[in-house]
Every structure is written in C-alpha cells, then in structure tokens.
Design a protein that fits this description.
- 4 copies of one chain form a homotetramer.
- Chain A is α/β, with parallel strands linked by helices.
- The first copy, chain A, folds into 2 domains: about 1-65, Alpha-Beta Plaits (2-Layer Sandwich); about 75-330, TIM Barrel (Alpha-Beta Barrel).
- Helices cover about 35% and strands about 20% of the residues of chain A.
- Chain A has helices at about 10-25, 50-55, 105-120, 145-155, 170-175, 190-200, 215-225, 255-260, 270-275, 275-290, 315-330; strands at about 1-5, 25-30, 35-40, 60-65, 85, 90, 95-100, 125, 160-165, 180-185, 205, 230-235, 265-270, 295-300.
- In chain A, strand 8, helix 4 (about 145-155) and strand 9 (about 160-165) form a beta-alpha-beta unit.
- The longest helix of chain A is centred in the C-terminal third of the chain and has 17 residues, at about 315-330.
- The radius of gyration of chain A is 23 Å and the shape is elongated.
- Chains A and C meet through strand 2 and strand 3 of A and strand 2 and strand 3 of C.
- Chains A, B, C, D: GO terms for molecular function: aldehyde-lyase activity; transferase activity.
Chain lengths: ~325, ~325, ~325, ~325
C-alpha cells in the first residue's frame, strides 16, 4: 500500500500519517518526488482499510499494490486447485460440463433431460428448484419438490446435482441433497449467505455478479474460504454493459485473468450470458478455447414451452452436436471432454 | 406486448403463435409490414413471460409496451405516495434528511453525532449495525449491540432510526427496533429478503443496485408491495460505470425518471455515490435541485478515525453549513428542509 | 510512477529495469516489501510511456502517481481560468448560458429563437450547421448556409455564436465566423482536429466523449493547449452506461472532479444527456447547484416539427421560466445568471 | 415503427399524429389496448426520424421494429459478402490473419517482422504510420515515411498492407499506397471521414468504437456503403466497461450477432481488447472458435523496446506457435488458416 501525500502537505501532517502507519504495524519507505511525497507501507497490509488513511485531509490518494485476497490468491498457492465432487473433479484435465434445464418442471421433464445430457457426455446435472426472478409474478420454482425431483434424476443417471441456493434458511436441505451449491450472480455479495456457506464443506459454485469486478468475485470467494470451506468454483456468466443486443456481455478475458490471479477453477455459463439460444454454441466453443475448466449450459427438451428462460436453452440434439465440437477444441488446450 | 415474426415465418408458424397468444388469455391485433408481421397482444400482459414467446424459432423478437410493475406504477396511482413514520412523512413537502455515521461505533460516538445532526435539522438518524463489506477481514458492524445503541440515541433525540438489514434471520429484531428498514444496493435483488419484508408493515428504504436499471428497482419495490407492504421509499446511490474517479456514478436523471414512472418517494445518497467527502456537498445540493424527496448522508465527528468509510463522511460542522444552503434550493422546488 | 516487480523477479531482471529507468532520465527510490519490490521513479515522468516498462516480463504492473496532463492541471495553475469571448467571460462569476436550436433550419427559425433566448437572459447562441448524425439518411445540417444564418442572428442580437466543427477542412470558415468552436463528443479523440484547433486562438468548447474518462477529457484539452491555444472550455454531456431510460447518464460528479483536477471552466449540456425535453429543467437546476460554470441548452420554438432532436428541446417559454429558477440557485453558489 | 400514445391522449391528439404519419408516406395500423393506443407505421420507415414523432406531448414512446441500416443488412442480402484484396479474400473459407507491429519504427524492424509473420502464415501486414495517442506527448507515428516503409515490406513479402487513416487530408496517399484502410475505434463516428471513404473503392476495415453498440457499428458501415463503397470489413476490438483488469472487454458475442444481422465479414483484434500480451493467445483462439473471419494481431520482435504498445504485442515465436493451434480450431468451424 502506498500513501500519496498532497503536494502541499506540511511536515507535521506527514508525520501524523507516518505515526498512524506505524500504529497499524507497518514499516515506512518514504520517497519524495518533484510534486508528491510517497509513503510506502511495508508489512502485512491485507487487513488495513485504505479508507482509514484516505480520510485524512493531507492524503491525496492511497494506492493498493497487493491484492486484498489471500486464500484465493495464486501468489500463495501456485498450483491449480481441483475440487473433488464424489468421483469427479472440477479443475483437472477433464472439463466439467454441467447441463440441464433452467427450472425443474416435472419428473418426466427432468428425467428425460438428465438422461439425454448424460448420454452426450455431461458430467453434472444442473436444474433450478429455487428461482430468482426479476418479477414477483413470474414462476418462482418448485422449491423443495424440485430438489426431490433432482435427487430422483441423480439416482437414475449418477450425475451429481448443481442447483442454486437463495437463502441461508435452506442450507441444511442443500447440504443434504445437493452436490454443488450454486450462488447466483445476484447473491454474489450476499455476505451472510457466503459466511454460512463457508461453514459447510460443500463445493460452492460462485457466479460473478452482473457488475462485479474480477477482484470482487475473488473477495467473495475469500469470504467462503475464510470461513473454512476452500471448495470454491468460480463462474463467468456475463456482465452488464451498454450493449443490449445480448442480455449480458460475456467477459471471456476474465478466464485467463482469473487463472493468473487465483488457483481456483473457473467455468463459463454461455446461456445466461447471451440470453439467446443460438449463441450458446459459439460462446461455449470460445469458452473452451479460452481455457475455461468447464461449462454450465441450459438444455431443455421443449424450449418453446419451458417454464422459464426457454429463449436461452438449447435442445438435447444441439447439445449432443456441440459436445462433439468441444472435444476437438479441448484437445488443443490439452484438455478432454 | 408485440410479437415480431421473422421475415420468413410461414402462415403455419404464425398461426401456431396466434394460438399460443389466445391460450394466454389475450386478443390479437395483427399488422403486416413490408418485411415483418406484427402480432399485438391486447389484454392483461403483466403476467406473461416474454421469453415464452421468444423461444419460438419463428419469432424475431418480442417488444414489451407496458411496464411490468403494477403497484409501483404511477399509471394506476397518479398521486404521490407519502410514507408515514411516526409523526414524520417521507414524500411530502418537507424533505427527509437522514444523517449519521456509516457504522455505529460507541455509545459516545452515536450520541454525539445524533445530537449534532438533529440540531442541524436532520429528521432521521442513520447508522449501520450490520455492515456489508467487500472483504471478510474488514469490520463487520456491532450487530445487535449496534441496534441497542441506535435505540438509545433515538430515545435521547427523538430521531427515528434508519438502518440496514442483511438477512431474513434478523427481521423480528428489525421490526421491533427500527423505524425504517434499509435494503442495501447489494441486496436489491435478494428476493427472499424482499418477500419477507413484504409481509411486515415497516417502511422499507430500498437502494438501487449498482448495476440495476430503474425498471429493475421498481420491480424490486413491486416484490415488497406485492407481499402487502406498500411503504417503500426508493434511493438512488450511484451506479457502476467505466468512470473510476468516483466510486460510483450518481445518476440524478433517475429522480425525474422515477417521479414519472412511479408514485413512490425517492431520496439520494451522495456519500456512497461518490465515495469522497468533498463531493457530498455539491451532490446533495444537486439532488435537492433535481427534485429528490430527501437525502441520506454520512456524518462523522472524526472521519479520519471512523471505523469504516471515513473518506466519504462529512463533519457535523460541514453538515450544518450544507443544511442552510439546501434550504434555499428546496424553496425553488417549493419544498422545505 | 511506480514499477511493481514480479514476486519472482531476479536481481538481474531488477537491475535491467533500473538501468532502463535511469536511461529515461529518472532517479530511483527502491522499496522491498514482503512479496513485491517497488521501484519509484523520481523526476519528470510526464513524457514516459508506462507501457515501455510494463512490456517487460519481470514487471507485475506500473502505477501512475501523477496526472499525465500539465497545462490543464490545477497543480501547476491553481487559479480558475476565465475564457474571454468578446465582452463576455466563461468561468467567471456570471454563468454562461448557451441556448438555441439543435439545427439551424431557416432564417425565421433562428431569428425567432435567438431573440427569445436573449430576452430570457441567454449569453450565447448555439445552433448546429454541420450535424453529426448516426444515420447517413438523416438531415446532415445546412452546412455553410447555416453559418450564414447564425451570423445574421448574431448581428441582430449581439449573442456570440457557438457551433460544432466536424472536420479540419472547415477550420478557416469557423475561425472567421464563429465565436466558440464546439468539438462534439464523437470527435473528442479526433486528434488531428484537436491539433489543428490548437493552432488557432479561438475558444474551444470540448465535449466529453460518450465513453471517455475525466482524465481522457483533460488529455484531449491538453492536445489543444499543447498546440498553443489555452482557451478551452469543457462540457459534460452524459456518458454511456447500462441504463437506457435516458439517452446517456449525466455524470454531475464530473463537475466537482474537474474543478479539483483542472483550472478550466466546465459547463453542462442537459439536453443531450437525457435526450428528453422534460428532464432538461431538473437537470439544468442540478447542474447549477453542483457548481457548473454554465449550461448549453436546446431551445426550439416548435419542437414537434424540429428537423432534428425535437424530443430533447424545450420551448422558449419553458426556457424563460427555467432561467428564473436558475438565478435563485446560482445565488446559493455565489454566482449569477 | 410503432407509436405508443400516452394513456390519456385525446382523440384529437391521436388524429394529429395519424395525419403526420400519413404525411410521411406511411399507412397506419391502429391497435387499442387496455392502457395504451398503438399506431403501427407500415411502409418504408428507414428514413423516418423517430424523434420527429416522439417530440409530441401526446406520444409515450416510439418503438423501432426494423433495423435502420439497409445496405449492411443481411435481410436484404442473405449471402455472406467476401471482400477481395488483390489475390486474397476476406470473409471466405480461409481466415484473414493480419499481423505486424503497433507502429512502424525502422526499415529493419518492419522488414524483420513482415518476413516472420509471413513465414508463420499471416495473410496481411498491419503496422501504424499515423498513430492516435491519448497524450500529445507520446510518439505520434512516422506518418508518410511509415507508409513508405510499409510499401517496402509489401514489395519484399507480397503481404497486402493494412494501416490506419486519421484524417480526410490523407485519403489520396492511402488510396495509392494502402491495400486495406483502417478506421480506428476513436474515428468510428467521424462521419466526414466515413463519407470520404465511401467515395473511394478501397476495402475499409472499420473498428467498433469503445462505447458503440453493434447497431451503431453497422450504421457507420452504412455511411461508407451509402457513399458507394461496399467493401467494408468490421472489427470487434473490445468495449469499455466497468472492469479495469483488461484495457477493454472483448465482446465476442458481437461476432455471432453481426453474422446474424449483416452479411459483412468481421474480424477480431485481441491485442487492443486486452492490452496484455499474455491474453492475446487465449483470446485469439476464442475468436476463431466463436466464428470470426480473421484476426488482427500485434507482433513485435522486441516488445520491451517497442515505441508503443509493447505490453500488448507478442513475439514472432509466440505468433508462430499460436497459428498452429488456430489451424486446429479453424477446422472445427470448417475454416482454414
């Protein structure tokens, strides 16, 4: 951390800031330029709140040099992490492909789709039981009954279940029934939920918020990890920009960025990113080419009659075709489907 | 709602979509242009999910004409709403000025500040007890003890309390202790929390999410109102943009926009918008000039030693001076401080 | 400028970077933290390209401490600048109000509007002769004939003319006919145009680009000033964000920010910001309250039949009414209309 | 185009708008819902300015159904366009790979790089002679001498030249010396430049502006095409968002979007998008996987000493390695390198 003093800061003011830095347990390296004095903090700055220093009148700005996350930081954990889910691993050579409907609707629906995606090579079954919807008048999910149907599909196919949690009050059910607990984009900074999940030992799929920076995503992972649960998988699903042709703008640069900054695995959700089924295939291919550890894709056997988000779901036939193409691209990356 | 069929949609496909529209309880007005056929839906479209129609291959796009919110919509409620809090009203001629520290720290701190802001004309006391922080290593608030200190300050000054809730598990405490329950920007789409608050009868201060559109803010208000609680106050607090000189970009255009679209009162938070104490004064004046129903402002007696966000807090002296200027601007708007 | 070396940079690599810094004419202050080595550059860094250093494998990142603009920087020019235009001044106690139609259409139109806005207290006449339009099929302006009509209106009313230049090929005409030459948002980084205008001595009204940071706006001012023309007036006119209710999002925080960073005057364009005539009044009031040095407002005698942008123009009656309100707010700021 | 009348619009007001629509040469399809009356315009609406109608008090909003571009529109030109450059074609089965330095620096530099990229399979040589730089104090390019050096490199290698034009005053030189004239992101809406290029018959590489929508990019292509020059190649190079880890956010969704909306070829610039050399490889692979018609990549033999943008340039060795991987991915798309 570097404190840039105002050009007109007096020696007295500079000494006041220096005393504060020392009281925070850091040493100081001072450097005086033509217009600015710089005070460099040497020591463990990860728990120091930059605002504490910035709130002084004599301080021009505070520059943060080291990333504010530790457990998620590749600097302190150079090897890639693999997250183990039963007999599968997320973040290893084999890509993790999570596929299934936006919402669980009926036993027949989820069974059909689960078998179809498994046959095409999916390694996890996704499906929403509790649904975050912009409108209170939209279908809100089958809730607990949805979890039951997912468990039936898992029993039939062996596919581990990925599904979204919306509230701390459901944690016990999720820990019992679900293999990977998803935190949706809108809850990425629901810190009470993150803290509660940090106390479980379940793999957590943490989706990037619509307007969250990569650093904020890693700070939310840090919340879970600081609680004791290091089984975090990150997910890029599009960010909000001025461009409205697609629902969100898929930020594929985030994949190599996260790979550089963190050791955690990261997957891509091409369905929510674009919100357009005909874009899922090209974006999925691009995600594998850019180095993602997997995908989460919406697949529905009858998109035109889906209870939600039919417009971004692909059919099992298209999914099957897509998987074949992905396996060629995966090889270029020395990965496999 | 208008369905635009693809240029090459066949008569059979058009008839299929027409049948679907009729099954949803709407009449159809058809209009054929040079390149596109349009199907207009006439009837109550507020509960129809546009994606249901869009997921058909023959549909080019679906255009929504009417706003998807009803209870928050000025169209069905032309008069301004006033929210009553004890002997005060939010949304009436007198502006609501909520002032106080970012976090409640000590009894002495909250008492001092409460008396100071009251003396300057503040009408509500703000102060955080449960704090949403980006880093798990930052101060997380005094929690329940913070609520106790706020109640002491209320007892002393008579100022009603505004403070933020972060989880459904605290609702009982908040209903008992707090006068206005704040939902923070990061929880604007925490739908479980919104639903739970909809079942109380407490005034809710709903802050706009960092990347939420005005329409989404009104849809979140609709969640609370649909549950039965129509006491919603909206708050603009800056949105996330590419400009990084300020923490967020205060969107003051949102005030006249919300006034046009909705009957609910709307206030402005200049402290979180800029994240810079020296911008609070100009932005507060602009907020009153643009027609806001009030302000929520961070005031701290010792910003350089505040436990959080000192950099965006103004001193009681500056607050006092600001209030005098605001009262002149309020008059131009036929309002009063 | 501070160079942050990679955690694993070898002594040899660090020495290589040090040698490069010295070759650029700077001294080095070195500081070694737990994980990073920092090399601080002391000396004139304004002409050093940070990328030159960043392109080295051993460099983690380069942090810029001092603003890259000099002539526009308040640090080296603490007093506010006033730009003199004939007998008027922009940036002084009296606010500059530039009003008139989007496009010059006919002699009668421009004469009528010019007289109306003058009667209400406008101090400059704005009007487009060369029009940047998104579509090649839209009205492109009266061009040279438009300049002639503006001159007639100036002769009649005495109002100096503000109008937009789109190409270096028109500079001679503009220098002769126009009092303040406007550079539109889309040309803010048309560097050839900026350089050419730097060689004139005309006041330049430089509008912020739709996606330009405050720093980039000041760098574009620097282009003009570096050429020898220090008569630059800045203009905030809305930036592009995810919110689509308004055409752009007016960034009023930019006004106090620019006032802090630079000595140049800055005005606000509420018409282009919102793109909605009924928002012009509240945004204009907010702009004066936030501390702008003036406004540029579209006024049309018959908005519903305007040849362009009628939707964002207010009538002379509304403008007259607005001016009265602005004068009260200006007083709060110790300014006058 | 659909005009939505205000809920309280009177019959007289509705009739006034109808008369206006008829005067614009369109027929009307009227549709009355519970709250809104809709007037659909049938006929050629591409030259009608929506603002003309929107500026009426009785109009709630105007919804545009058909895209405002014609010549660039796939609707009227269903087949992909190929742009012929000598013996090469852009937009055909073989991908177009444009490679070379950010700036032309010396004869030796450009010769070395040109031979290297040709040997690796590049099909065009890129290199800047006129450079748009944010700072007036940065290197501005070798200008005309740069064009001479590019011609020498072309003579030696046979690679056609792609380079950026910044001003209408250089058009004659560019038409004579250059094979593909590039319009940079900052000039995408420099309409005078677009009009002038529309009168040449040279292939134009049009880069998307930092904050331009896909529709605006196509409208700028329309400017060139409306002038008579239909040889336009589009380029996605990253848009400006809140995420600052990368210089811009590469919007790869734009590729399938443009392919759907337009028949023009579209390539990707991974170098300017990220601004980080180590991201060029993954983003280039993703661009080919998503369906781009080619790439424009910065390659420099000594990035650490490049005169500009060294931080985003890859070495010839890395480029060579990248080309091999791209050829496998291209095959999945039924394309070739």
């Amino acid at each position: 951390m570097i404190v840039v003093m105002k050009p007109k800061a007096s020696l007295e003011e500079i000494n006041k800031i220096k005393a504060k830095i020392i009281s925070l347990g850091c040493e100081i390296h001072e450097s005086n330029g033509a217009n600015y004095s710089l005070l460099g903090l040497v020591g463990d700055t990860s728990r120091i709140d930059a605002h504490l220093l910035q709130a002084n009148d004599s301080v021009e700005k505070v520059i943060i040099v080291q990333e504010p996350y530790k457990k998620a930081n590749r600097l302190f954990h150079p090897e890639n992490s693999e997250i183990i889910v039963g007999d599968r691993s997320i973040g290893g050579k084999k890509l993790s492909i999570m596929a299934g409907p936006c919402s669980v609707e009926t036993e027949e629906q989820i069974m059909t789709i689960a078998k179809d995606v498994q046959a095409s090579g999916a390694t996890f079954l996704r499906g929403g039981a509790f649904k975050p919807r912009t409108s209170p008048y939209s279908f809100q999910g089958l809730e607990k009954h949805g979890l039951e149907l997912l468990k039936m599909a898992k029993k039939e196919t062996g596919l581990p279940i990925v599904t979204e949690i919306m509230s701390t009050s459901h944690i016990d059910d999720f820990v019992e029934d679900v293999d990977v607990i998803q935190v949706g984009a809108r809850n990425m900074q629901n810190f009470d939920l993150l803290k509660a999940l940090g106390k479980t030992n379940k793999p957590i799929l943490l989706k990037r918020g619509l307007s969250s920076t990569i650093e904020e995503l890693l700070m939310s992972a840090e919340y879970i990890m600081a609680g004791g649960n290091e089984n975090v998988i990150l997910c890029e699903r599009g960010i909000r920009t001025f461009e409205k042709y697609t629902r969100n703008t898929l930020d594929l640069s985030a994949i190599p960025a996260i790979k550089k900054l963190s050791h955690l695995p990261v997957i891509v959700d091409p369905s929510h990113a674009a919100g357009l089924w005909w874009m899922v295939e090209p974006l999925a291919k691009a995600a594998v080419a850019v180095g993602a550890d997997g995908l989460i894709v919406e697949v529905h056997n009858d998109p035109a009659n889906a209870w939600c988000d039919g417009n971004q779901s692909i059919t099992p036939e298209r999914f099957n075709n897509l998987m074949k193409k992905l396996s060629v691209i995966a090889e270029v990356e020395d990965r496999e489907i």
